[in-house]
## 1
Amino acid sequence: MKNLFVLLSLASLAAAEPTGPRDWKSSANTTIHADALALKQGIVTLRKDDGTTLKVPLAKFATDDQKALLAHFGEEQAKAASGSGIAFVTEGLPHPIGKTSGPIKTGDGSTYFVYLPKTLREGRKAPLLHFNGSGGGSAASLKGYLEGAELNGWILAACVESRNSNPIPSNHEHAKRCVEHLVSTLPIDRERVYFTGQSGGGAMSFYNAARLDAAGAIPLIGYIPQGTSIRKGHYFICGGATDWNRYLCGQATVFLGKDAVHRVHPGGHSSTPSWILNEGITWLNGRYLGDASRKRELDPERADYEAALLAWIGVLREKEPHRALFWCRFLTDTYKAKGNTATAAEAIARELERDDINKLYVEGIAAIDEFSRDYYATFEYSGYANGLTSDRIIKAADKLAEKYAGIPFIEDTAREMGLKTAGQRR
């Protein structure tokens, strides 16, 4: 978490000291003698011996020179961090920064835990992600979301009283009181409240989002409760490949159309991996900022989001280049970045696409969502959805697994998607 915060801080700092003149090698094995003046949003500014300057995407440099540039500008910017003028919130809030606090009483019988990220900006309201648990919320409920909260500057909260043993209306009232208390005591953007939670909490995520006119949700192994009318928002729906709610998740994805995706992963009616939860926050943030591009007042936040995401892509490309490519393509194709951000993301994407594994991973993520819409959403059954599948689903899942054999995450997920629904991961 500390390294992530440093990374995000560096993404917003002013330019470091130049490197000094030296030979730089490109990925095409050409060489140029120049002084690197700056590295910003994936673009390197070079000054040649004759004094002329040019801008080159970082991805165009040879691997060793890329590492040298990242190390130089990162180290130099870190030295200047204390005097950089970055307006991060450090004090003046009712709870400590970078820690989970609670339980906090609303005064009306509801309590919650809250996490304030280190990347909160002075003078800017932050989105809120509110957790609803099938067995009640706790400090532990927020752990899987911390990286995403820091990357995007989101506040997290978990309602203690949200649990399956309470009727839906009672659950909703607890969540509503927690949200109202949070909005009244912290710098939260009321237009950007989101919900999350697993199983019954996933169902409550849909219900609360609808009733409180939220900006969306990350429902986990959940379903849309009967009679719930959702009018707006973006939805990053998650669930295990053998989860008994997978058919209901597929139906929800179809119902919400282009504003939702179904991120299926290996496992049954169990927890979603934290890396997917963090991608969910980043996806929701990008969808909102991209769709709201006409709102000029959000331009500073968009700039921060783009810089942070490019920096994160730089980290991912070292060990998980397939995920790095996914987020490059999210920036170019879904978020529809412009200017230097688009140039940098496109340059990195083209380099990563030289490896078919990376390309097939991005393609496979979309194929899994499409599979859910085509097969899970249309599967007809009655009664409890445990132990169910069909020949049609089995054949389609086997075909998907064969097509993406050897592709990280995709093959494993596809192989389970045709199995009978089950409870916990085997």
Note: DSSP finds 13 helices and twelve strands in the chain.
## 2
Amino acid sequence: MPAVQSQNPPGTGTLRSHPRFLRVWGGQVAGAIGDQLVPVALSLHVVLHGGGAGTVAGVLGGRAGGLVLCLLIGGVLADRMSRSAIVAYADTYRAVLLVATALLLDRLPMGLLALATVLVGAGEALGRPAYRSLVPTLLPVSLLEKGNALVSAGLRSSAVLGALAGASAAALVGTRAALLIAAGTFAFAAFTVFGVRAPAPDRKPSSVLGDARDGLRAVYRRPWAMAVMAATCVQIMAGTAVALTLLPIVAQREFGGGFSYGAVLAATALGALPAVVLAGKWRPKRRGTVSMLVLVCYAGLPLSLLGPLPLPWTIAVFALGGFVVELFFVYWLSALQREIPAELLGKVLALDQLGAFALLPLGYALVGPAVAAFGEGATLLGSGLIVGVTTLATLLVPGVPEFGGSSRPQRTTR
């Protein structure tokens, strides 16, 4: 039975009829500002102190490394414990960690900033599957797309503020102030989630390894899900890692520094907002086909840095990238919440995120050597081509055009 049919609150109505969902949503909107602010501030800190592509990649890759190391643990916990409590504790942990990092910033070599981002990423990994799994327990099936669209709208709006705040704080008052602002957002997020009671999901007793195997088996039985997860993994490694590593360097060299960097990142988040509105209202029959075709445009992010394009055009291309990613994400997340059983949802969502980030640290690690070996232009061109080809290839897998419906039969044992 699909997850959302076993634990959803009854009735339909509107999102305003579900105050517990709105309370959780409000807290996570605040925390999303910190999510964006931290990497922007730290990457600019590295660039302003003479760091190159390798050092920037190390800082950005640290967050991805923390996600990879802890996402599956977060997914297992989300199917064993109260999901609202996990979200609150994860936000509290990140607030304390960033206050400590800010106080010790002058004593930390730039190389150790990667450790800070690993630890922040670990906190994000522990809370993210719980938050995504909590949504379908707070809303009826009929409101899932609208609920996920509102979640994305809040996160993307906060990402705009986070990108601008991170760039502005790092440039005007320093990295320490930026980190303290981020800590404040996580503290507020934790405060708003405390008191939202959500019991642990029903589950059969099993080991942690058994839980992980159950999640992997659920993905394996759905080839359409496995294909999209694999393609996303490659796209993020080849596209996101290259674009985000070289963007601050290109911005400093060609566009005048940190404010242009923050503007491009903010445009990505702003571009996602129209997609959130569209996905909340439009229900195409073949949502997978629509999602994967528009996602080809994400290849434009690294390609726009070739040359590069003038700043206004670069901003426009990154805004389009935010639009297509968000349209894909709302349909994709809603499909998983509908198709995956409740007792497996946390693990599958964790595996989805783990797959997305699994090769990201490797992607960051390879950017510097690739630029040294092939040049910046060839690296950006190859990045765009890989993103486009892998996205289109998923449409050849049965079930991808509909985002569901095709699954392998479950094995039975005697």
Note: The mean pLDDT is 81.
## 3
Amino acid sequence: MTKKILVLTGGGDAPGLNAVIRGICKRARKESATGNEKWEVFGSIEAFNGVFSDPQEIVKLTSKRTAGIHVKGGTILKTTNKGNPIKYPVPQPDGTIKFVDRSAELVAKLKKLNFDAIINIGGDGSQKISKSLFEQGMPMIGVPKTIDNDLSATDITFGFQTAVQIATDSFDKLVTTAESHHRVMIMEVMGRDAGWIALHTAIAGGAEICLIPEIPYDINKLVKKIDNRYKNGRGFVNIVVAEGAKPKTGSITASVGDKGSEHVRLGGVAYQLSKQLKDAGCKAEIRETVLGHVQRGGTPVAFDRVLASLFGVKAFELATEKQFGRMVAYKNNTITSVSLEEATQVYNTLQKDSYLVKAAKGLGINFGD
């Protein structure tokens, strides 16, 4: 008897997604060749949208389709952040969007397809969907994916190291031009609610200032820090700021999100910070760089390829053991699993009293607090 697995990738893309898909498929082929059960792996295009589509967009993940994809960025299954079945965006006649719960409809469609396991690769939002579907009787297994490293049930997520490397490479280039022109350089990185990318980049690159969502900043303290770096108009300062960073007084920089998206759109805090610094009396020349989606793209670094591959193998093994309702995790240098309940319980933000923050301050990095 042949068993079937459905794989899907949801939410924002991250380097390493394809390595997970390949890991699942290669482990399934190994089991089919040497074990007692035959396995076939299928993929749903654009997360659960492939199941909702008419005709359905579900493809068989053959060895030809998955060969060598571990070195490629993005996902061969495509992805979307507008396909949450619990809050599914439905266009209305007046042009507005109404969010409706289509999870019961999705469960009915999935049952009809008769998959023995469903592996959902995604971040916090995706794993909350996994949990909901599991509670409705679906054989769900989660794989953590996010460049933001904001899932607390795993020590690290694939895609994070690549994003930090991309950000650090960019930061290194800005340091030399800041020094040459005696400028303040502001580099904005991703991080809606968690500052992991920003802080790791700041430490790796040797930033003077790092602004993160978890620690609201005082603009006057930042000006004082900058002034101390300048003598007779000469000096330079490099700042890393997460897109979700906010001042102690004021609000986050955000705009209306795309139609069908549950979130407001962040981005532009670098320009807001620049204006705040000038308004507060900063005399130095300031330039801004917004990295944006380059942090999500390109070839995953070796660490992320390895981690993602191990996650893929573990996810398949959970399926063979019928360990549903669980998410693969990396803990204490071991690949393990946790319940979806635990996986979605606490959002992984940086703690102000963590050693990472204390060490950064010990290195002279200013948070504006």
Note: The chain has two domains: 2-158+300-343, 161-296.
